[in-house]
Amino acid sequence: MTGEGMFADIPVEVGVVFEGERIRKQQMHAELGGPNVEEKFEILEVKGPGEVEDGKIKIIGPDLPQMPEGSSHPFGTEIAVAGKGIEPDMAGVMERRVHDFSNWIEGYMHLNQRDAIWLRVDKRSVKKGLTLRHIGVVLARLLRSAIPLIEAVEVTFITDPEEVHRRIGRVQGIFEERDARTRGMTDSDVDVFFGCTLCQSFAPSHVCVITPQRYANCGAISWMDGRAASRVDPKGPIFEIAKGECLDAGTGEYTGVNAVVKEKSLGNVERVQLYSAFGYPHTSCGCFECTTFYVPECDGLGIVHRDYKGKTPTGLSFGAIADSTAGGRQVDGFHGLAFEYMRSPRFLSASGGWKRVVWVPSEVKERMKDQIPPELKDAIATEKDVTTVDALVAFLREHHHPIMDRIKAPEPVPAAENPGTEVRRPQTASQNTVTIPGGSVSLTLKNVKIHAERMIIRKKQE
């Protein structure tokens, strides 16, 4: 699709060629939502036939041309659809297609979902005349074209901060109702799971596997949503996965899942263990709500969410950790996930679940307060308790976190064979230098495991 035909009245190009387009800060005219904005949301709701005015695009607040260049804004998107064959439980699936179709618009970058959306608009596209009204028209036409059951689409964009604030509570309540539908179901209750490849434009080898007890990483698609999507569009990006033989109930590995993931990732990923952060962990896209990160000093896992602006005890921000996690890779200890998955009894159960978690931002701790086991509530640290790895380990010891049972006392370091060489064993992530006569060499190791009884460094003789 281009600016001709279906989109002849749109001032920029429209088509799949723009999927994966990134708009850097220096390129952007304006940012809608994102990590610097507290309140933002995107929702699609199914309404009765008489409740939706087909083709209506409404904007509450300033449109793109009225926004100062380089500015950030609270933002809301409300889409109402109607059609005789549409069921209410299809809403979440159609809502996720908004992410897909938004990225077809030249100079319009869409990331994440629900109340974590992050959008940027390129300066060049605004100069060409792109407005929110045009974006609404594109979304409405693409939704109707892709989902024949839709007979009417109405789109509302909210850029007025007070109006975004007024509406967000109702929207978050709807998200909670959707999430609650699958709670109580178990993975053993069903014969099929569902897969999603909507994010492959950003993460080519990523295949999201959605089960009753493992939500999609983005937090937008439950098992029931997957079932509805596969019925609406059997050949679409959300599809059924036959579980096949269970190879390991503990880690959650199935022959059917492995076969589909290998096929859909073009052979880049051959095995997936759904409940493990190590070994063959589930891949990560780029839209995950949270991610774990490994803390080797205590053999524990930290969790950080997308809106956290500070640094973790390891010194890394969410963005830095996400860069190591995203793209469809399998990295031990680094694992994109949804908030709803953290409510599941299967939450990283093969890796210790909540008992393996040692640090979370205080906002996550408050949000998950009913899921964290009572004996761990005071033992899991936040940014209010510690800011370094050394302080974290001390906190865990003081509060008797069960992870400390995994840590052995440090073994004595054998003397180096060369008396003139001093070797210091690194104790924390910040102490990663090896001292040798005449200076030091800084070693930065990422995603490696080293097992050695001793290390000898000798000065090279000329």
Commentary on this structure:
With about 450 residues, the chain is an alpha+beta fold. The chain has 3 domains: about 5-180, Bifunctional carbon monoxide dehydrogenase/acetyl-coa synthase(codh/acs), Chain M, domain 3 (2-Layer Sandwich); about 185-405, 3-Layer(aba) Sandwich (Bifunctional carbon monoxide dehydrogenase/acetyl-coa synthase(codh/acs), Chain M, domain 5); about 420-460, no CATH class. Helix content is about 20%, strand content about 20%. The chain has 9 helices and 19 strands. Strand 12 and strand 13 (about 255) form a beta hairpin. The protein is globular, with a radius of gyration of 24 Å.
Q: Output the helix-strand order.
A: EEEEEHEEHHEHEEHEEEHEEHEEHHEE
Helix content: 10-25%
Please give the radius of gyration in angstroms: 24 Å
- The overall pLDDT, averaged over residues, is 86
Strand content: 15-25%
Q: Please give the alpha-carbon distance between the first and last residues.
A: 66 Å
CATH domain topology of the largest domain:
Bifunctional carbon monoxide dehydrogenase/acetyl-coa synthase(codh/acs), Chain M, domain 5
Task: Tell me the number of helical segments per DSSP (H or I, 4 or more residues long).
Answer: 9
What is the CATH class designation of the largest domain? Alpha Beta
Strand order of the largest sheet: 4-1-7-6
Relevant CATH superfamily of the largest domain: Bifunctional carbon monoxide dehydrogenase/acetyl-coa synthase(codh/acs), Chain M, domain 5
Gross morphology is globular
Q: Main β-sheet: number of strands, strand sense, barrel status? A: 4 strands, mixed
How many domains is the backbone divided into?
3
Can you tell me the CATH architecture of the largest domain? Answer: 3-Layer(aba) Sandwich
